[in-house]
Amino acid sequence: MKGKPKTKLWELQLEMKHKLGKCAKCGRNYYLTIDHIVPQTLLQQLNLIDEVYNWEDNFQIICGACNHLKSGMLDLSNEKTIPLLEEAVKRAKLQTNRQ
After folding, report:
1. Confidence class for position 17, pLDDT limits 50, 70, 90
2. Which of 9, 16, 63, 88 could link 23 by a cystine bridge, Cβ 3.0 to 4.6 Å?
3. What value does the CA radius of gyration of the chain take, rounded to a whole number of Å?
4. What phi and psi values does residue 2 have, to the nearest 5 degrees?
5. What are the residues facing 36 on neighbouring strands?
6. Is 26:5 a contact under the CB 8 Å cutoff?
7. Checking phi first, is residue 71 left (phi over 0); if not, alpha (psi -120 to 50) or beta?
8. DSSP state letter for 61
C-alpha cells in the first residue's frame, strides 16, 4: 500500500510533532498548526495546487486559536503577506502563459 506523498507541508507537520515552536502571532507554544500565509483557497483559485503542499515560504506556525481567527483571510499585518501574494500572482501568470 502506498503512503502519502512526502510534501513540504507533510514534512513540516511531522517535524512539529517532534519539536514544538511557538505561534508566530501570539507566541503560544501549544496547539500549534501549520498556516498558509496566502490561504489555500486563494492558491487553489489561482490553480497553484503544488504550492498548497510544497511552497515552504508560505507556511507559518500559529496556534489553533490564531488560525481559527485568521481562517481563509489574508493577514496584511504579516510583512510576508504582500510579497508572497505578488509571487503567487506571478506564478499563476507564468503557469497560464505555459498552457
Report:
1. low
2. 63
3. 14
4. -75, 140
5. 59
6. no
7. left
8. E
DSSP 31-47: SEEEEESS-HHHHHHTT
Cell (9 digits) for 58 = 508560505
Q: Which residues contact 7 (CB under 8 A, 6 or more apart)?
A: 53, 54
**Residue pLDDT, tens place only, 23-79:** 999 999 888 899 999 999 999 999 999 999 999 999 999 999 999 999 999 999 999
In the chain, where the domains are located: 8-98
How far is 46 from 92, CA to CA, in rounded Å? 6
d(CA 9, CA 31): 17
The whole-angstrom separation of Cα 12 and Cα 62 is 13
CB 43 within 8 A of CB 51: yes
Residue 82: its H or E element? helix 81-98
How far is Cα 72 from Cα 38, in angstroms, rounded to an integer? 8
Phi, psi (deg, nearest 5) at residue 21: -105, -140
- The conformation of residue 47, written as its DSSP 8-state character, comes to T
